[in-house]
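Can't attach files on this board, so I'm pasting raw text. These are the components:
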Amino acid sequence: MSEHEDHHEEHGQNDQGHDDHHGHLQLEYEDALPINNGKVCLWLFLSTEIMFFAGLIGTYIVLRFGAPAGTWPRPHDVHVDEIWGTINTFILIFSSFTVVLTYEATKRNLAKKAKFYLAITFLCGCAFLGIKMLEYAGKFEHGIHPRPGSRSLLYEQADVYYLRDLKAVVTGVQGVIPLAAKSADAEAAAAQVPDAEVATPSSSDPGRETLEEFLHHSVQWAEYVIGQVPNTEMSPDGNGLNHRDVLIALAQEVYPLDNRYKDLTKYTHNTEKTYIEARLKVLPDLVTAAGEDNDVLSMLAYEETILKARQEYLDEHHHSEGDDDDHSHGGLNVKLHDQGSAVILPMHIPSGNMFAATYFLLTGFHALHVIVGLILFAFPMFWTLEKSRANYIENVGLYWHFVDLVWIFLFPLFYLF
Amino acid sequence: MSDHDVNTEDHEDHEDHDHMPTFKRVFVGLMVCTAISTLVGILISKGVFDGNELSGWGIMLTVSCVKAFLVITFFMHLKWEVGTWKWVLTIPASIMSLFLILMLVPDVGMRTNHYTDERTDRAAYKIPDPDASAVNATVGETADGEHSAGDEPH
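---
Top answer:
Structure tokens for the assembled complex are below.
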């Protein structure tokens, strides 16, 4: 022993191989674990992954259930379709099954069969990602995404700030002319309209007309209500309108929330109608009283225009109330989207931003894991899958099953709740 | 590398009875579970579970746990693994993740339960006040409101 040690000290630095001959002690090693090192490492990694995804999923669950009733978007509110989720679940479970088949075939040295199952697994992974991509694209198209750097389109509350931003977007579209405040302006505006159309025939948005109508019969009406009609929420006995309800009803025109505010909207529209009728009866008297005061007269004329625009809209709306589907799905944003407009109006979706943040974070991390899995599956596509490759296949398979496991929880949480 | 292979070969020999029928059954089970979850989800969106969505969610999460159990036990071979290592690597991680969730409950999950009046007024959405069931009667959640108000008159 001491001889060896001296020897080692003299030559140790250069003589790398020496240690191998060191052991006349005849140490006998026992396997610490009855599995190979790769599998130990993979399981260690998976146990950290359990905590990683548990943290993410747990945060989502706690946020979701902690939200007061009715303040978290239902799947259909945010373009989450359970059909795609179900298809993706089937695809992923099926691919998990084919990984098992790949492993079993590899173990039995059935290289061709193994390669066949591996190819199916790989294709399933690609299909999953493809569907995920389409889903993401659909949400982006409808403005459902967290927007770093600028304001989100998802509003917690239908309040005056919502109205302000809504108006800014609508009037920001080229060629959208508000109802004029004064009759003189109205003529000027009317004169301007053809000019604007002639000047910018190609660049005008396909949804321009829809937006202009919306501005006239809804946005400017809401603005008028906020500015001039007494708020019955503050003084319930007074003659006026509930500002909060009017704004929520306005938001439902843009983006109806899965029928949640259907009754409220109906009720509000009826009160609006009553108010407008009463007000229109009073207006002629006011005009007489104003005499020759031009400022007052023009204001009253403006008021009449707004009231009539709204009345007209409500009457039309009332007629089409018969077919429920027309109202409950769609909304202005979908209409604009179908018209090929580039404009997405701000939407009132309580907890919408929280939803978007958690949805994209969780499904994004999951999709990232799917991509890594596909890369790991890509290598053995070029190998002959004989028995010696079984360890690799088993380990990648374990990882893939874990990815499947995560999706098993994501699917109901995002698509079905 | 080579000794690993030898290792697994040894291992397989006594483990090599055909698990295929089991795997097929597990696969079918997973599909059935998915169908159940989807069905419950569709029923919820159709309004069948209105008022007790919680039970629908409970069913779906239970089904998910069953699916997770099936995948871990059979597809990930944990049932046939020998030794304590499988418990060492999975149980502490699972407990840890459970605590991760539980730790969020008081501050995040119950964030609106104890708002001050001022904070409630400035909340982004109208928060139902459990103590003021009379006011809430208009909102439509009368049963719950009355219950909590009756039980705990603060």
